[in-house]
Amino acid sequence: MKANRSIACLLLAALPTLASAHVAEKVETLHDQALAEFPGHRGLMLTVSFKPGQVSAPHVHPGSVFVYVLEGTVQTQLEGGPVETYTVGQSWYEPANVPHLLARNPDPMKPAKLLVWELLKEGDPILKPLERGAH
């Protein structure tokens, strides 16, 4: 009986993390600008906020992406690369059309927030969900 109670307590404690792992991260567009110097392209600046323990669905960005960690810790993995961990003040680059297999906030207690800048062709979405088996 004690074992069942312990397991139930563990599951209840993990529910917020498990629930947030399947909810889309919050994306807020800060600036979306057509680029006169690069006809047919636009620059996009946004923030991406992850709740504690939240995991992003695998996806691909049709544009080149630059990311800077504003708050917390984020783990990320591009196809063919290792899982990388970034903390406040660190940044990285994601080439266009490379599958982004993992993006998560590994901290079960603290949120994470990213500043993202993406160079896109006009009409392209910020990201496209990755189809199962596509990578």
Textual characterization of the structure:
There is one protein chain. With 135 residues, the protein is mainly beta. It has a single domain (2-129), classed as Jelly Rolls. Helix content is 14%, strand content 44%. The protein has one helix at 2-20; strands spanning 26-34, 41-50, 59-60, 64-71, 73-78, 84-87, 91-94, 100-104, 112-121, 128-129. Strands 1-2-9-4-7 form a 5-stranded antiparallel β-sheet, with no helix packed on it. A 3-stranded antiparallel β-sheet has the order 6-5-8, with no helix packed on it. A two-stranded antiparallel sheet has the order 3-10. The protein starts with a helix and ends in a 6-residue tail after the last strand. The relative contact order is 0.25. The model is unreliable at 6-21 (pLDDT under 50).
Count of individual helical segments: 1
* Overall average pLDDT: 87
Please name the fourth-level CATH homologous superfamily: Jelly Rolls
Strand-residue proportion: 35-45%
Radius of gyration: 17 Å
Count of DSSP E strands?
Answer: 10
Indicate the structural class. Answer: mainly beta
User: Can you tell me the CATH topology?
Assistant: Jelly Rolls
Percent in helix: 10-25%
